[in-house]
Structures are given as structure tokens and as C-alpha cells.
Amino acid sequence: MLQTTINHTARVAGKIRTLRRNREYSQEYMALLLNISQNAYSRLENGKTPITIDRLYQISTILQTNPTSLLDAEEVAVQEWQRARY
């Protein structure tokens, strides 16, 4: 169970990192908007700190995406594919 939780956390964190980079937002910028330190944000994005539902919603709002898309692997892959086509 713990390993499954860690895998899901890392997968969501990776999607957040990808979307943040696509929008050319820095970790510092994200941390500022979330009212946390850059170090705390880095731990979230690296999967070292679990992401709460509230934090997931805040991050999805900043990244202008639906929170469920961060939880769904196929949705992010489709967004990346569509972006690459243009």
C-alpha cells in the first residue's frame, strides 16, 4: 500500500513539474503563489511531500488545468501531444 501511494505521489508530482515547465513558471514563482518556500515547493514537486487535495486544487488553478487531469496519466499525455502538434 505504501509503495502504491509513493508511486501515485511521484506520478502526480511529475505531471505538475511538466505543466509548470511548459508554462515556463519557475519553482520560485509557484512557491510565491502558494505562499510557501521554494524548498517546500521543490519537495512537493519531487514527490517527497504528499500533496493534499487543497494544495492540488491550488496548483491546478495556477497551472490553469483541471485537478483531475493531474491525477489522470492519459490526460496529461494528450495535452502534451496536442501542444507538440502546434
Describe this protein's structure.
The protein is mostly helical and 86 residues long. It has a single domain (2-85), classed as lambda repressor-like DNA-binding domains (434 Repressor (Amino-terminal Domain), Orthogonal Bundle), CATH 1.10.260.40. The protein has helices at 2-22, 27-34, 38-45, 53-62, 67-71, 73-85. The protein is globular. The N and C termini lie far apart (40 Å). The model has no long low-confidence stretch (mean pLDDT 84).
Overall CATH class = Mainly Alpha
* The CATH H-level homologous superfamily: lambda repressor-like DNA-binding domains
Shape: globular
Question: How many distinct helices?
Answer: 6
H/E element sequence = HHHHHH
CATH topology: 434 Repressor (Amino-terminal Domain)
Poorly predicted tracts of residues: none
Strand content: under 5%
Radius of gyration: 13 Å
Largest sheet: none
